[in-house]
């Protein structure tokens, strides 16, 4: 859950978000390092009163440095990015597949692997919230999935563009009408994880939350057979 005045990423609750957090820290470190190096170099040039006999354009060592350095920086940024992109998007033998369909302004979830379970998920109005439930994030029917087992989410939309996003799980996929996008979802613990539609989709875009509940496998199988929307 995010908190007021938060300056960092949400706490990672799955391998995908852990990869995103590590990549963020890596790129931020390189950015800060380059800012320090460039600032010190500029300050040294300004404060150095000595002049060089040769024009700057003819200093071969300096030319080589400002050509090789950006290449190395790009490589140090690109290689971890490609690795993280592969790990975040690759689907490995999912235990269950859930189809999420965006509507104006609610989500529909379908479990079609073993049952024909389908239900709509609407935001709970503020006056109907139970004590302790987050405002504008809690829904009447959560998307339930097994914890610590990979789940494949297939995302589409019925009317306009939407985006299915749960930050603490590192999940964000566009929901496009007439197109199916997929995303592997894996949690490292049980719990409830909240998100919101992240694509402006109309007047009630801000009232289209997502609630994912990760439960032990035994509880998930029991829920599949007993849940009635």
Automatic annotation (TrEMBL):
InterPro entries: CcO_II, CcO_II-like_C, CcO_II_C, Copper_CuA, Cupredoxin, Cyt_c_oxidase_su2_TM_dom, Cyt_c_oxidase_su2_TM_sf. GO terms for molecular function: copper ion binding; cytochrome-c oxidase activity. Its main location: mitochondrion. Binds a copper A center. Gene3D superfamilies: 1.10.287.90, Cupredoxins - blue copper proteins. Coiled coil: none annotated. The keyword S-adenosyl-L-methionine does not apply. It is found in: Mitochondrion inner membrane. It is a multi-pass membrane protein. It catalyses: 4 Fe(II)-[cytochrome c] + O2 + 8 H(+)(in) = 4 Fe(III)-[cytochrome c] + 2 H2O + 4 H(+)(out). Its cofactor is Cu cation. The keyword Mitochondrion applies. Residues 1-92 form the Cytochrome oxidase subunit II transmembrane region profile domain. Residues 93-226 form the Cytochrome oxidase subunit II copper A binding domain. Belongs to the cytochrome c oxidase subunit 2 family. This is Cytochrome c oxidase subunit 2. It comes from Tropidophis haetianus (Haitian dwarf boa). The gene is COX2.
């Amino acid at each position: 859950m995010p908190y007021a005045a938060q300056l960092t990423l949400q706490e990672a609750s799955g391998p995908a978000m852990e990869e995103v957090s590590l990549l963020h820290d890596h790129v931020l470190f390189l950015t800060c390092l380059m800012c320090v190096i460039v600032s010190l170099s500029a300050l040294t040039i300004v404060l150095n009163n000595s002049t060089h006999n040769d024009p700057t354009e003819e200093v071969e060592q300096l030319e080589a440095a400002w050509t090789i350095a950006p290449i190395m920086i790009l490589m140090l940024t690109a290689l971890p990015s490609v690795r993280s992109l592969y790990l975040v998007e690759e689907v490995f033998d999912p235990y269950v597949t859930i189809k999420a369909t965006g509507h104006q302004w609610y989500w529909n979830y379908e479990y079609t692997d073993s049952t024909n379970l389908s239900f709509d998920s609407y935001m709970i109005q503020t006056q109907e919230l139970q004590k302790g439930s987050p405002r504008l994030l809690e829904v009447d029917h959560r998307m339930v999935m097994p914890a610590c087992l990979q789940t494949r989410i297939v995302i589409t939309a019925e009317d306009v563009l939407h985006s299915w996003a749960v930050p603490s799980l590192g999940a964000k996929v566009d929901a496009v009408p007439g197109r199916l996008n997929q995303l592997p979802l894996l949690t490292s613990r049980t719990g409830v994880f909240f998100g919101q539609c992240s694509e402006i989709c109309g007047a009630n875009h801000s009232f289209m939350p997502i609630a994912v509940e990760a439960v032990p496998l035994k509880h998930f199988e029991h829920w599949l057979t007993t849940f009635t929307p």
